[in-house]
Specification:
The protein is an all-alpha fold. Helices cover 77% and strands 0% of the residues. The chain has a single domain, classed as Hydantoin permease (Orthogonal Bundle), CATH 1.10.4160.
Length: 450
């Protein structure tokens, strides 16, 4: 077995920006605003930040500590601490999730490319005109996949770190520019009040579960991406400060995304609770109607494309690192191989929006599309399952004493109270909460409460 092509981060900043890029994706800029809109605005934002602190941060530390300790991909890392036990299949689950999520996530990411040109040139037509055009949808999917391959092909420092340093600082700059423009629109302050003035009476059990789910899914947890990125860290790196920087950047981008969207939504008299269609249906209508909207809208979809790219990079890197570590493949061969398999898996998702009657409405699943099926299996089930198992693995199998000792390298103070609190959260709180989130995401909890 060889580690040719494995690599390390060239700097702490490079790691922070790459890991933040993995976490910051469509979940922050597409999913966060519409979920916030559906769940009452400011109160949900505060609840989300609390959930990130209690669940997101502890699980992030789990994955980073495991990855740095082993200096291997998720499968190799687990094998190193448990031997050739059944635990290794948690790592295989993460590798499979990376490929499968990438196969359908890149379809949505391709739409961001389409909307850049759609908005810039003022092309009208409903969202379905783009998604239902099989050839266009396929070309956008392949273009985004090739862009992702180009970055991962360059390696850790020359590809992922280099482009993260370029792309990640652009995100807040574009968001701030859109915010400044949105705030000049008549009626924008109503959106600001919705977003910044909490109404705690709006919080329900459903709101709490949605906040917990968003805190988990928006931080690239459960599939081993952070195990992989952690494996490129040096032993003297301070995981605590670096990890908190990653989470902080993600919260900042989420917060700014809402600040960019809600003033414009209220200014144009639209419904903030429009749901998943908020970004791809409602916002284009808003941009088309507002003065200077073509420029602002184009900038927004460039922003969305960058966020999607930084996530697809990490999704591809997980299986690539597996092939480099476990199968001795050269990075370039591994990258193209995984990309080829992902494209084959992605074709049914491309055809899930009218391109094929079968994949658009699977007859044996009550009309669910292939795209929705993949999102259910790997988004609603595999990710929380992986996160819960990582917490149990580190908390109970590897042991918190070893995990805290790993965290304390680069931060000796972690051996005291911080390590004890982290251990309690990892062993007891996180597995229980993630299990409830998984029941909620799969709809089982709702049926149990009926």
């Amino acid at each position: 077995m060889t580690t040719e092509g494995r690599g390390t981060w060239g700097s702490r900043l490079g790691f922070v920006l790459a890991a933040a890029g993995s976490a910051v994706g469509l979940g922050h800029i597409w999913r966060f605003p519409y979920i916030t809109g559906e769940n009452g605005g400011a109160a949900f934002v505060l609840l989300y930040i609390l959930c990130v602190a209690l669940i997101g941060v502890p699980i992030l530390f789990v994955e980073l500590a495991l990855g740095r300790h082993a200096q291997l991909n998720p499968v190799g890392a687990i094998r190193k601490i448990t031997g050739n036990s059944a635990w290794k299949y948690v790592g295989y689950l993460g590798v499979a999730a990376g490929v499968c999520i990438l196969s359908y996530y890149t379809v949505v990411a391709g739409w961001t490319f389409g909307y850049i040109f759609k908005t810039a040139f003022g092309w009208g037509g409903p969202h379905g005109q783009l998604t239902g055009n099989v050839l266009l949808n396929a070309l956008l999917f392949l273009a985004f996949m090739l862009l992702t391959v180009g970055v991962v092909y360059g390696g850790v420092q020359g590809g992922i770190e280099k482009w993260s340093k370029i792309l990640m600082p652009i995100l807040p700059l574009i968001l701030v520019a859109i915010i400044l423009y949105s705030l000049t629109l008549p009626g924008a302050m109503e959106g600001v009040r919705f977003y910044l003035r909490p109404d705690f009476s709006a919080i329900t059990g459903q709101t709490v579960l949605m906040a917990l789910g968003q805190a988990f899914f928006a931080n690239s947890l459960g599939m081993g991406a952070m195990v992989t990125y952690g494996s490129y860290l040096s032993k003297n790196e301070n995981i605590v400060t670096s990890g908190l920087s990653v989470v902080g950047f993600g919260i900042l981008i989420s917060f700014l995304a809402g600040f960019a969207i809600f003033p414009a939504v209220f200014a144009m008299g639209q419904d903030p609770a429009a749901g998943p269609q908020l970004v791809f249906v409602i916002l284009p209508e808003i941009f088309a109607a507002m003065p200077g909207g073509l420029v602002v809208g184009t900038a927004f979809f460039v922003l969305l494309a960058i966020a999607a790219l930084t996530s697809t990079i990490s999704l591809l890197e997980v299986p690539v690192a597996f092939l480099i570590d476990e199968k001795g493949m050269r990075r370039k061969v591994a990258t193209w191989l995984v990309a080829g398999v992902t494209v084959l898996f992605g074709i049914p998702s491309v055809l899930s929006f009218g391109g094929s009657a079968f994949f658009t409405s699977l007859p044996f699943l009550g009309g669910m599309s292939f795209f929705d099926l993949m999102d259910f299996i790997f988004g609603a089930v595999a990710l929380p399952l992986g996160g819960m198992l990582f917490a149990i693995l580190v908390g109970w199998r590897w042991g918190m004493a070893r995990a805290v000792a790993e965290m304390a390298q680069g931060n000796p103070a972690f051996m005291g109270l911080p390590g004890a609190v982290w251990g309690f959260l990892v062993r007891y709180v996180c597995p229980a909460v993630i299990f409830v989130v998984m029941l909620h995401q799969t709809g089982i909890l709702r049926k149990l409460m009926e």
